[in-house]
Amino acid sequence: GHAPRAAATFAGPMDFGADEDEISIRDFQAAADLDPNYFSKEGLGALVAHFGADVPVELSTPVRKILWDVPGVACVTDRGTVRAKAVIVTASPAVLAFEEIEFSPALPDAHFGAFFDLPMGMLTKLPVEIKGTRLGLEPFDDLLIERMARHDIYFLCFPFDLDLMVGFVGGDFAWEMSAAGEAAGVDFVVDRLCGIFGSDVRKHIGRAMMTDWGAERFVRGAYAAARPGRSEARAALMQPVAEKIFFAGEHVAGPLIQTCGGARLSGESVASQVIAQLAPK
Questions:
Q1: How far apart are the first and last CA of the chain?
Q2: Bigger pLDDT: 6 or 194?
Q3: Which of 139, 145, 157, 224 has the highest local Cβ count within 10 Å?
């Protein structure tokens, strides 16, 4: 009985960030099997900073409105209006569904509807520092604790032999956890570890934290998962609007949906599409 349950947990909450009955089977089948799925010892932030070191980036400049009934496009930001021949929109579908960016005129129904068909899933990471013991585990061991009603938690154990256990919760339970807040999340993790390895674990616990992507106003979740029967929403967003509004990001990254690598490659491929589009005919 445990294998199907574990499979459902990994396929749904831990992978798609949504419970297995809330995801599109077609969407799930289209995703690549990411094995091996590498991560960086120094952290992904370091990787991104290194990768984008020479890219000019403006921070604290939210775009409030995109006008496209003008020559090219005009993006109205908190620091003035930027005009260009075309725009690549990489905001998450949730941000677009909440209409944080207003489009004028309104986008075609197929594009606007697609934002709602790709709601953000939730995957929350709870790294906990554990000093002076490896709890009998090897670096990179996987540990899944199954609980009632999908309150499952998965641990990546001591990656790179660091003093770190990284707890993962996904789907509806992760949204509940983010509403309860970091202190509650960390307590939950430590209590589960004590339940397995004994209450001695407490004296080895150092720093701990919880990611909270749902609370980031300009992200609003971990990554997008198509609603059942709605997997075609991704293809809809891959079509440019009026040959000047293009969408890019993890939610339109083909088989690499829901990954940082997919987001980057999507941006790269859309950028080449835009360059080709704007080239003198």
A1: 62
A2: 194
A3: 224
Residue 40: the pLDDT is 85
The residue count for the chain: 281
* Cα separation, 21 vs 225, whole angstroms: 12
Query: Any idea where the domains of the chain sit in the sequence?
Result: 44-119+225-278, 123-220
pTM assigned to the model: 0.92
Question: Is 259 in contact with 34 (CB distance < 8 Å)?
Answer: yes
Report how far residue 124's alpha carbon sits from residue 43's, in angstroms, rounded to the nearest whole number. 16
Residue 244 near residue 87, CB atoms below 8 Å: yes
Cβ-based neighbours of 252, under 8 Å, separated by 6 or more: 234, 237, 238, 266
Burial 72-91 (b: 16+ CB within 10 A, else e): ebbbbeeeeeeeeebbbbbb
CA dist., res. 115 & res. 100, Å (int): 12
pLDDT digits (tens, 9 = 90+) for 174-191: 999 999 999 999 999 999
Contact 24, 224 (CB under 8 A): no
Tens of pLDDT, residue by residue over 133-158, are: 999 999 999 999 999 888 999 999 99
Q: Which two tokens stand for residue 146?
A: 């199954």
Question: How far is 155 from 140, CA to CA, in rounded Å?
Answer: 9
Residue ranges of alpha helices (H) inside the chain are: 2-11, 25-30, 44-51, 93-97, 109-117, 171-180, 182-197, 233-237, 260-278
Whole-number pLDDT of residue 25: 86
d(CA 150, CA 19): 8
Name the percent of the chain lying above pLDDT 90.
Answer: 76
